Amino acid sequence: MNDNLRFKGSVRLLKTDVDGNTFVLFEDNNLIVNLGKGVIAARLTADGPRPTHIGVGTGNTATSSEDTDLVTALGSRKAATPGVTTTTVNGDTAVFTATFAPGESTGTWQEAGLFTAISGGALVARILTGAQSKGVLDTFSLIWNIQAL
Fold it and tell me: Which domain covers residue 39, as residue numbers?
């Protein structure tokens, strides 16, 4: 019997403006990098680190399975609130959410990464977001899903 277990990552970027209106700016699948595959495997034994932070940057170099960090970080990584949800079967998707408040990581976002630490640590997944302008009064939220298929 062949199970064909694999993982799929996806990211949604939301913007909340000063009037409290929320918009979806970006939604797409991401690349789970080689280090990320190792993190996922290690978590099956509860020995390894887990994703805890989301960082953003201004780099627009294509994603690669060999990526180990963002190309050009913008501001500090934010703690990600973890959760579990159901996409296809019960509890098949890990969810990590981070909110960047007004004044945090202001500028043009072009990349985002899911990490195992506030600094250093392993890059689990990386995505290019296209040019997304975060003004000083904007709140951006990144919702990162990793689904077992």
Answer: 8-148
